[in-house]
Design brief:
Elements (H helix, E strand, L loop, with lengths): L2 H8 L2 H24 L6 H21 L7
């Protein structure tokens, strides 16, 4: 594993911006879930599943960008 390539990938401004946008969106989703589903037993499970799906999707998307070559 080349540490320099990983560093170049995760310090790319596009990657940082996309990570911030994902975090903001997940925060908004959590706020909505807390407001509308706070009394439901499945709310934490739903949010964890959403975070896991988002993380896996983001990693798949990030792997396909090939920003290390730029």
């Amino acid at each position: 594993m080349d540490i320099q390539q990983l560093y170049n990938t995760f310090t790319n401004p596009r990657v940082i911006t996309s990570m911030m946008l994902v975090a903001i969106c997940l925060g908004l989703v959590l706020s909505a879930l807390l407001k509308y589903l706070s009394r439901e037993w499945y709310m934490p499970t739903l949010f964890v599943a959403l975070c896991l799906a988002t993380a896996l999707g983001y990693m798949f998307w990030l792997d396909r960008q090939h920003w290390r070559d730029v």
